[in-house]
Amino acid sequence: MASGRPLLIPSPQGANPAARTETNSAGPIPPAVAKSSSRRSSRSRNADRTPSSSEFSFAAELKASSKATFSVENFGRSDSKPARRYPSKRSDSGRLGSQREISDDEARFVYINDADRTNNPVRFPNNSIRTTKYSILTFLPRNLFEQFHRLAYVYFLVLAGLNQVPQLDVYSPVASVLPLAFVLGVTAVKDAYEDWRRHRSDRNENNRMVSALVDAKFRPKRWKDIRVGEIIRIAANESIPCDMVLLSTSDPTGVAYVQTINLDGESNLKTRYAKQETLSTPPESMSGLIRCEKPNRNIYGFHANIDVDGKRVSLGPSNIILRGCELKNTNWAVGAAVYTGKDTKVMLNSSGAPSKRSRLETHMNRETIFLAISLTALCSVVTILAGLWLHRHRDELNYLPYYRKKNFSDGDNYDYYGIGWQTVFTFMMAVIQFQVMIPIALYISMELVRLGQAFFMIQDKGMRDEKTKSKFQCRALNINEDLGQIKYVFSDKTGTLTENKMEFRCASVHGMDFSGGQDDEENGLFISVNGQIWRPKMSVKTDPELLNVLRGGKGTEKANRARDFFLALATCNTIVPIVIETPDPATKLIDYQGESPDEQALVYAAAAHGFMLMERTSGHIIVNVLGERQRFDVLGLHEFDSDRKRMSVIIGCPDKTVKLFVKGADNSMFGVIERSINLDIIQATETHLHAYSSLGLRTLVIGMRELSRAEFDDWQSAYEKASTTLFGRGGLLRAVAANVECNLHILGASGIEDKLQQGVPEAIESLRQAGIKVWVLTGDKQETAISIGYSCKLLTSEMTQIVINSHSKDYCRKSLEDAIAMTDRLAAMSLGAQNTITGTESQRVPIALIIDGTSLVYILETELEEELFKVATACDVVLCCRVAPLQKAGIVALIKNRTDDMTLAIGDGANDVSMIQMADVGVGISGQEGRQAVMASDFAMGQFRFLVTLLLVHGHWNYQRMAYMILYNFYRNAVFVFMLFWYVLYTAFSLTTAITEWSSVLYSVIYTALPTIVVGILDKDLSRKTLLKYPQLYGSGQREERYNLKLFILTMMDTVWQSLAIFFIPFLAYRHSTIDGSSLGDIWTLAVVILVNIHLALDVFRWNWITHASMWGCIVATAICVIIIDSIPVLPGYWSIYHVMGTGLFWLLLLGITVAGMVPRFAMKAFTEYFMPSDIQIARELEKFGNLNEATASEIPMSTFSQPQQGFI
């Protein structure tokens, strides 16, 4: 063994991270104690791992002598001097066994400690990163390009240009440009601020400092200045600035512990290793050539080799540390940069920040085109009629009142360009006159409404995480309404659905169930070390009966098996114990760190039952066994792999025996357990496992057997032969593991709960009832994901599971074809059941698709995508395991690009960023996995369960409000335009108007704007309680009942009627009177404002004082403004309002217009709500009258498959 130094170390607090002095260290880097032999170099086994491996377990490459032999006497040594032994027999059976040679065309050549040579002749990217959308040069053109995706902006730009023509000077040039410029400027400022924040984040990241080897000394250097080939040194708790091959570490065996939160979302420590060939060389003397694959997105794979000291050694995923990782529990690590900047795997897996626009806003383009066509039609009618009128009266144009060629005031005639040009000018002037048909003020109103909606979402106490005191965050203000139309939710697992905290629940030991469900009590176990009290950081509930078995009855079969069971839990793992200081100097906590949360839970459980893991070195571990400190030598370890589905460790015990402990999945373990003995115990264990699984617990089976001297020698010889093989190494190592993992005696089984976040199962069920499909995309292994699927009720026992685990494109194609056939068959069975049994969907067979990342490699971005789409959309649940970050985005794109359904992605780690940005709506969980997901998200919250409130309550409200507000704004402006159009028909098509210019300007700003904004922020069609109680109501947004083309057309038909009532009722009443056009224009102004506000009032669901004040206040404000305008002598229409306001006919006309205009709408509204009520209407009636029937009715009979509501807005 290389060192007796324990890996039980205090958490680094005040230590100098740059300190490099280690015990037994003679230089800046601890040299290898023994010379590397060819055998030892061949044991650099980590290079053989494939990307599909789920874990990189603890194991160090120990020093060994080619003459070392097995000796049972060495097993019991307790002094600090290590026994001579072979390296920890750490298997790579889960990885590819041999490295293929990299061709020069496929390779990147990295000369260690020679960046100049590495970057010549091809200069690799520097280490700076850029996540922004704009630069100083591209901001203006790109931002304007994005904004002009709104067709209304293009429309107003054209109108502003037309108004600059002197012959079409309807408005002043400045006035025509100012509204559009204001809207564009406000949006540009907002976008610039958001991008400036990204620039600031990039600048901070690029200017971070790291120690780089310059002129044979480590000097501080900015991250952005690091070049490929340079040697850099990382201190404890520092982030890795680039992808680097590990050369040496503070551990003499070359082990380094890293945290990969930013890559795969996992907070547990993972181990990486430096090759023995590079450990002994000081950095300043290091030289060599790394031939590695070109940059790619696979974060789980790395293919390379290194030529050092005339020897070529292969490198694998366990020899590289990726950018974004953090060095933990290792004082320092030295590596050579191989990928920098945009070539790093984390950056290759990051997609750029997209420009997201809401679905409603996208549909507005459709309605905008329709309105533009309507506007063109109106202008064409006016133009044609004006041309005919000019031709008919061409000889009278000098004297006619609506048009005069001759100016009798000063003798200069007006410009006249002939009938042809005059008709052209008439068309353009008509476009300018009727331009409010497309309301530019709508976009400002939408922004204000979204701001108000965001305020109330942020203040919602129902979405406040009391544990972390974090509020809901609304980071994007332009897609609030999309929350009400979500059809697919793509969720990460770790940290999103779960707390990533495993908890030991129960155990089956020697055929007896110790669930401790009723008699649990918190265990206060502790040990005394040098006068200090050491206790586990986490307490575990224990079963008193099991404790009695362990502490009593020594020597009995039951007690011995129970002790072996917990000894297996304490030793068969890759956990590293770390001592943590507490405020009490006499008390310290032991924190168990490792790659697998399951292992952490099992080790804490072993400690709670008296088997406390105290320290681990490269070749032995110390366990306090029921108060007695014992040393166990780790003679070999075969790590977990997806083929064997188990791991094993060979332990040299203090009593000179050698034991093999094995743990794994039940379907794997029962095949290697000796069934000729203790059959009743095996059957009892199987019964207990079934019970645990039905509770959604994660289960493992534990077995063991003692190895004789001959068996150990045979295993040792086979392992040495397999580990030195150049080709097919992985298969041979798997065979070695399979040969020794046989004829086991069963010890028992464990049940672990992966603690879900509070309310996750209920949240998923509510989303399902709302018609939302929930897909889980996780980087975890398949067994873990399936277990969580059952725990959170995503998967049920009634579901038919389709599992696709293929390792080639042909196998993927065959699996997908079989899956399509199965879904078709099940669909036919379900259809038959509906027709012959109930006629409902109750007999439909639910289907779940489970697919791994390896299969997705061969499916995504190929012709097989379409097949996957057919299978996935036919399934109720999709569970994707072992997926890389970009594959998550690919799955989202699979649905987003092929359907019109809205997608939402939710995650908590940097590995979820691409998925969050790809989805229509991205939600970040502000939990324990850093803030990368939050920074990339549109919305952020503390718990997954808040998604129910966000979608079913606020999403529903936001969609209903915004959909109504958009249609109302179209209606409001269309009524005004049609009223102007009718007037033009009676003024010789001259485009004059009786309404003053100021009233036209103020119509959309003061007269009618405020009420619709208030209603868009505050109105609620249903209460929170009703929306949460009946999730089916969410389907209203999915079916676009509140905003669709048919509803838009009906609304426009209503505007025609109302405009006719507004224009012709006063026109006919005053037809033979002597009042002037300005007085008539004032009546029309007041009538249209009153009518559109009464229209709005009829649709308000919940009144409050703000709504009353805004609505009736605007009517009063309109009257005051009209009076003020008509009281100014210099303005047209001076004193006009006073000519009509004092007569009874004036007030009678306003009343008659309101009644006549609203009759069709009121009749249609009453008819549809009585004879064709929507789900929303039924629920509103239940809210009002539900108490009468609550005792007998348990749910609302929803018309969930109803067509979009037919009616007027």
Automatic annotation (TrEMBL):
It catalyses: ATP + H2O + phospholipidSide 1 = ADP + phosphate + phospholipidSide 2. Residues 934-1174 form the P-type ATPase C-terminal domain. ATP binds at residues 492-494, 599, 640, 663, 698, 778-780, 882, 888, 911-912. Its cofactor is Mg(2+). It holds the Pfam family PhoLip_ATPase_N. GO terms for molecular function: ATP binding; ATP hydrolysis activity; ATPase-coupled intramembrane lipid transporter activity; magnesium ion binding. The active site is at 492 (4-aspartylphosphate intermediate). Its EC number is 7.6.2.1. Belongs to the cation transport ATPase (P-type) (TC 3.A.3) family. Type IV subfamily. This is Phospholipid-transporting ATPase. It comes from Phoenix dactylifera (Date palm).
